[in-house]
């Protein structure tokens, strides 16, 4: 690669770490003081409030322990910066081939027009097209998705030269034409309008076919459509592999005469009697099918809604793999998961700014970020179980000799044989080879296993974001998604893949702790729910659980509480959030802990007891028009009779009853001076009520379809009233 070494990336330490470490140490002293207060001031046996006190002590022990765990990702974050211009000085012929995997599973929840926009954005990378192969895995085996990809293969001949001529960003046509207000600043207006019309005509044809639910009979004469029959369903269909664009074929060129990337449609075989292992099974099928067709040494996998927003992303990632001095042990490069439909004030807490700007760089300091299932470049060999060795040399020319390989028809048939239901039987696929099975977060457990085999990962977040996706636009979708994430991460913690067990002696203690930040999401539900309910009920009954304002112990509670939240606010604002966005994020963490995480820990326990089996819920990428308008206006969306909403409503109403009832009782019985022993509980209950204000609005004021259904309101009100009355008896 050259006689003189030039680093393709550099690493910089975060600033202000000494000040933060001093602050963290002072917080630890405050936490220990709170524990000491609880241990030395507990009510005696038989005294009122003893069991409530012991429960609060247990909750605070957990909160303190979890806070210590979270310090692993804030102790010393590092940031990576690449030099793609140095990579561009190298001979393009020496750069490796790249296989890109895009996964979809439901043409209703994941509209085909959204899927092909992601595919087109990856086909248009600023990288030699003959070195790119793009694979779409359609787990539904839908002819509608295949039709959309067939349309995209024709549109690509116009779109790719347009992108390169005008250096278009982003290169997802859906995102580009929806965001660009003044085309004259970059493109010739007539060309821009012509291209926009071509895209809209294609989109209209696709949407019409999807609404119709079938393709016209005349289309079945085209290559590939004959693979489908009337008996096929999403759960029962044969393996399908169709090479729509063969990059090896000299006739596969765009309108400017340049080569096109290889484009492949794949639907692995599905039969009702065989377990298909969800997304992990789909990814493993892609690994095998692509090894037969292109076999590139580098792979990128994306969710179908995560379009490429930066045409240089491949080159940025290769800067790590191809660095001659520090790239040999890098197994995968992880980009952040960022959403471009987040509202200004981040209604559902999906900006993930603190995650991407603080926590993942914190992971990187200890050996690398986790694999999060999308926006990740891997060495193919590590996905196939390769262990790190200092003597290992990557074959960067792997896959290049495929230009003289067998015909497309032969490759399709050979690839089909690798994605049947029975291919993996009695093999190590899903265990030692490929993505891991039997876990809702197959990505995290796979990345951890790779790191435990000696490989490192790196995290990169360039100024122009690499990938942008679609965040849930209703509260129910958001809570279900976090339920799956918390459940999967907790399953890992309780399994043989627990970072403290699997990673012992293989990865640093700091990285083991960092994984547990997410692995222990689910258990946070129990102490949080306790803290939201019990102090308020004790307020209603006049039982004090905290020191008086005049007590020296009050300072410990005040310092820890104020310090944690003020630091969190400053950190959030520095990462780009708004003040209202930070407040919304606090609300969402309470709602997630009391619902998503509670359901996650319950589901995990039921699975351990073999009472239930693992499922996988696809997060819908679309919502109805009225719900979308409310989302854009930062209005919470309820509208369904979910049991999660009953919990949310009950907690909100219970705290409102306790605040009003407790204050009334204190003022009547003891006057204003009686408030001092209960000041912290009054403040805590008041803050809970304040953060639930949108919940009260949805319960009693709003009349739109996004408010609470009557059944949820009735159950929430009734449950909160019953608990309050029983407490006062």
Structure report:
- It holds the Pfam family Cellulose_synt.
- It comes from Phoenix dactylifera.
- The active site is at residues 139, 443.
- Thought to be a Golgi-localized beta-glycan synthase that polymerize the backbones of noncellulosic polysaccharides (hemicelluloses) of plant cell wall.
- Its main location: Golgi.
- The strands form three sheets. An eight-stranded mixed beta sheet has the order 5-6-4-3-7-11-9-12, sandwiched between helices. It has a three-stranded mixed beta sheet with strand order 8-13-10. Strands 1-2 form a two-stranded antiparallel ribbon.
- Strand 3, helix 4 (112-123) and strand 4 form a beta-alpha-beta unit.
- Helix 2 (50-70) runs antiparallel to helix 17, helix 4 runs parallel beside helix 5 and helix 19 (579-608) packs across helix 21 (643-670).
- The termini are far apart.
- It is built from 24 helices and 13 strands.
- The chain has 729 residues and is an alpha/beta fold.
- The protein has helices at 17-40, 50-70, 84-88, 112-123, 143-166, 173-179, 189-212, 278-293, 313-321, 353-366, 380-383, 408-416, 442-452, 475-493, 499-502, 509-519, 525-541, 553-574, 579-608, 625-632, 643-670, 679-691, 693-701, 710-728; strands spanning 9-13, 78-82, 98-104, 132-138, 240-245, 262-267, 298-303, 307-308, 330-334, 338-339, 376-379, 456-459, 467-469.
Largest sheet: 8 strands, mixed
Spatial arrangement of strands, main beta sheet:
5-6-4-3-7-11-9-12
Number of strands: 13
Radius of gyration: 28 Å
Rounded to the nearest angstrom, the distance between the terminal CA atoms is 80 Å
Q: Mean pLDDT, as a whole number? A: 92
Main location: Golgi
Organism: Phoenix dactylifera
Binding site for UDP-alpha-D-glucose: 110, 139
Membrane topology: Multi-pass membrane protein
């Amino acid at each position: 690669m050259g006689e003189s070494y030039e680093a393709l990336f550099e690493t910089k330490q975060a600033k202000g770490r000494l000040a933060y470490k001093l602050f963290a140490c002072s917080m630890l002293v405050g936490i220990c003081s709170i524990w000491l207060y609880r241990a030395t001031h507990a009510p005696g046996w038989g005294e009122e409030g003893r069991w409530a006190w012991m429960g609060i002590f247990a909750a605070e022990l957990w909160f303190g322990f979890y806070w210590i765990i979270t310090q692993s990702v804030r102790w010393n974050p590092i940031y990576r910066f690449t030099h793609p211009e140095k990579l561009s000085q190298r001979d393009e012929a020496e750069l490796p081939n790249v296989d890109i995997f895009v996964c979809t599973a439901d043409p209703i929840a994941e509209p085909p027009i959204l899927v092909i926009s992601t595919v087109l954005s990856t086909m248009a990378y600023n990288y030699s097209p003959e070195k790119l192969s793009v694979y779409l895995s359609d787990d539904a085996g839908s002819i509608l998705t295949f039709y959309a990809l067939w349309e995209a293969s024709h549109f690509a001949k116009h779109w790719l030269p347009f992108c390169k001529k005008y250096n278009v960003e982003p290169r997802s046509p859906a995102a580009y034409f929806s965001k660009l207000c003044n085309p004259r600043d970059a493109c010739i207006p007539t060309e821009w309008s012509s291209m926009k019309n071509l895209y809209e005509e294609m989109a209209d044809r696709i949407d019409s076919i999807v609404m119709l639910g079938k393709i016209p009979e005349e289309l079945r004469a085209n290559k590939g459509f004959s693979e489908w029959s009337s008996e096929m369903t999403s759960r029962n269909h044969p393996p399908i592999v169709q090479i729509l664009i063969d990059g090896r074929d000299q006739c596969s060129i765009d309108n400017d005469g340049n080569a096109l990337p290889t484009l492949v449609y794949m639907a692995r075989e599905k039969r009702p009697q065989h377990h298909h292992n969800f997304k992990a099974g789909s990814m493993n099928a892609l690994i095998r099918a692509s090894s037969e067709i292109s076999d590139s040494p580098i792979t990128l996998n994306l969710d179908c809604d995560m379009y490429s927003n930066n045409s240089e992303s491949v080159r940025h990632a290769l800067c790590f793999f191809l660095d001659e001095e520090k790239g040999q042990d890098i197994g995968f490069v992880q980009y952040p998961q960022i959403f471009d439909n987040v509202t200004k004030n981040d209604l559902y807490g999906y900006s993930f700014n603190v995650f991407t700007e603080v926590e993942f760089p914190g992971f990187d300091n200890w050996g690398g970020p986790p694999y999060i299932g999308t926006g990740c470049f891997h060495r193919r060999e590590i996905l196939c179980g390769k262990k790190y060795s200092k003597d290992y040399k990557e074959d960067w020319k792997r896959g290049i000799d495929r230009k003289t390989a067998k015909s497309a028809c032969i490759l399709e048939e050979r690839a089909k044989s690798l994605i049947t239901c029975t291919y993996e039987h009695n093999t190590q696929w899903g265990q030692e080879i490929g993505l891991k099975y039997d876990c809702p977060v197959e990505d995290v457990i796979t990345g951890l296993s790779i790191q435990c085999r000696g490989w490192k990962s790196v995290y990169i977040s360039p100024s122009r974001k690499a990938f942008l996706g679609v965040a849930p636009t209703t509260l129910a979708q958001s809570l279900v998604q976090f339920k799956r994430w918390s459940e999967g991460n907790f399953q890992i913690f309780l399994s043989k893949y627990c970072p403290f067990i699997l990673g012992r002696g293989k990865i640093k203690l700091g990285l083991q702790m960092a994984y547990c930040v997410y692995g222990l999401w689910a258990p946070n539900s129990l102490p949080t729910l306790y803290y939201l309910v019990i102090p308020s009920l004790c307020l209603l009954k006049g039982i004090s659980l905290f020191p008086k304002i005049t007590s020296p112990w009050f300072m410990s509670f005040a310092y820890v509480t104020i310090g944690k939240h003020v630091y969190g606010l400053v950190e959030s604002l520095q990462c780009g959030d708004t003040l209202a966005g930070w407040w919304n994020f606090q609300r969402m963490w309470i709602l997630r802990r009391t619902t998503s995480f509670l359901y996650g820990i319950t589901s995990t326990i039921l699975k351990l007891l073999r009472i239930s089996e693992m499922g996988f819920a696809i997060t819908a990428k679309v919502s109805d028009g009225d719900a979308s308008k409310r989302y854009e206006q930062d209005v919470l969306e309820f509208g369904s009779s979910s049991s999660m909403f009953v919990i949310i409503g009950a907690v909100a109403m219970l705290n409102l009853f306790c605040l009003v009832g407790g204050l009334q009782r204190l003022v009547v019985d003891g006057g204003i001076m009686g408030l001092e022993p209960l000041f912290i509980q009054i403040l805590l209950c008041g803050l809970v009520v304040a953060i639930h204000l949108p919940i009260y609005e949805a319960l009693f004021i709003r009349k739109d379809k996004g408010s609470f259904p009557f059944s949820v309101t009735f159950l929430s009100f009734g449950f909160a009233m019953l608990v309050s009355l029983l407490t006062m008896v």
